């Protein structure tokens, strides 16, 4: 009886493709698209076309040097946001855009919160975040911190704000959005 059920299940799985692609299929499809030359703006966040079934068999990762080269390119101005904080205008790339760019160019990346520390007076919180990139030949990680005032809830809760700041800074240490830290503020 069990073999009959298993054979019917195997028949269903082998004959009928899934109704929507799995996460791995999407990641592999995006990795394939990242390796083809395109304009700078469209190559960063262009979604995979619907029905694209081309999946590379050799894996979804590339050599680390290629990943870092892609991440070092300028982020298109359409993805850069500006906010006023403490009377100063600050340019930044939202964390979710950074996340999508990493998924596109380094689909096997990982990130983790390393620590959350409140100041002795309880007025600020600091988060340390680590981003790790995995290439076919090596892996590299960078850590950064972000600090937010506990009283400032303009952009979400303070821990979220500090985490997003630390995530963006760790990615900048890998080259992603680094150009924003070197632009003139005049």
From TrEMBL:
GO biological process terms held by the UniProt record: double-strand break repair via homologous recombination
Domain of life: Eukaryota
Sequence segments annotated as region (Disordered): 34-59
MF term (GO), any: DNA binding
Record-linked InterPro entries: RAD52-like (IPR037489)
Descriptive protein name: DNA repair RAD52-like protein 1, mitochondrial
Gene encoding the protein: LOC105036234
């Amino acid at each position: 009886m069990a073999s009959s059920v298993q054979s019917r299940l195997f028949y269903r799985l082998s004959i009928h493709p899934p109704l929507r692609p799995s996460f791995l299929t999407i990641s592999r499809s995006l990795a394939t698209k990242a390796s083809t030359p395109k304009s700078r703006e469209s190559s960063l966040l262009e979604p995979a076309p619907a029905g694209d079934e081309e999946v590379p068999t050799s894996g979804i990762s590339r050599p680390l040097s290629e990943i870092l080269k892609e991440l070092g390119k300028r982020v298109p101005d359409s993805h850069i946001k500006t906010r006023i904080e403490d009377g100063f205008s600050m340019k930044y790339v939202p964390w979710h855009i950074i996340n999508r760019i990493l998924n596109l160019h380094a689909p096997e990346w990982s990130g983790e919160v390393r620590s959350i520390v409140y100041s002795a007076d309880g007025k600020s919180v600091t988060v340390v975040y680590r981003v790790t990139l995995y290439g076919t030949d090596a892996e590299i990680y960078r850590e950064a911190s972000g600090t937010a005032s506990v009283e400032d809830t303009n952009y979400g809760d303070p821990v979220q704000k500090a985490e997003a700041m630390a995530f963006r800074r760790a990615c900048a240490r890998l080259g992603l959005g680094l150009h924003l830290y070197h632009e003139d503020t005049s």
